[in-house]
Specification:
18% of the residues lie in helices and 37% in strands. By secondary structure, the chain is an alpha+beta fold. An 8-stranded mixed beta barrel has the order 1-4-3-2-6-7-8-5. The protein has an 8-stranded mixed β-sheet with strand order 10-11-12-9-13-16-15-14. It is globular, with a radius of gyration of 19 Å.
Length: 307
Amino acid sequence: MSVGARTGAITALDHVVVGVRDLDAAVRATATLLGREPSWRGTHPDAGTANALFRLENSYLELLSPDGGEGAQGRVLAQRLDEQGEGLFALALATDDAEAFAVRLNAWDVNVARPREGRGVAAEGSAERRWSAVLMPAQASRGLMLLAIEHRAGSLPEVAPTAAHDATVTALDHLVVFSPDLEGSRVLYGDILGLRLALDRTFDDRGQRILFFRVGGATVEVVGSAEPQESRPGPDRLWGLAWRVPDVDATRERLVAAGFAVSGVRPGAKPGTRVCTVRGEPLGVPTLLIAADPSEDPFDDRDEAVR
């Protein structure tokens, strides 16, 4: 294989999608939480949705709402909001070649269609973003809305923080997935998707076992019971997000002043980390803030679960 050849491999945790009812209100709350304005506001004319994107160092957060159109995704999202309320809706992983990724999945007997072309149009002006995406069938993704995306045109500009750098969110540290079948999830993320299993750890005091998959400077933490069982029916569930901050004390102080309810700062499960919880589950998402000792590699493997 030549240097630089595209393989369809997963290269990063591209973005997480939070479904919201009122996009304007969600943007205001998220801009305060993260300490930065969105890099993009727009619509998906073919999907019946509108969105806002917040760019971070290693990923981005997408707020997605139905836009009143006829698109299938807008109808699915509207039904989800009616049934479950706001919260984590989808996980998108980055691939260098959507076509090759689909071929890789089919080699695992995961029957997927060819990549679908997507288009986003800016809310103001004529800018567009285009991509190719492969949506995994629910049976293969263990019930999650899980896709791989190859960006083709358009970019997300960097937006300067609206607060002091030390008091802002700079990156996604980890995403938490609850699974009733850790072995099935290990096969999905490790074998089929090819993410690196950095750590498999049991927390006896919590009765939990957690699989830590690393990709592109972020972690997918898959949490399940530490008790072995022969059969664990039911789908996986996207649960919570942990945001990386330079200074957890400064960030907590800023959020409390802005009206957020935030726990006290405590030591994280990983030595050298300090964390606090944003209470009330903003937009239906359990939310943790985490800071590491400056002497440590900020992209080292994490073992801190949202709690």
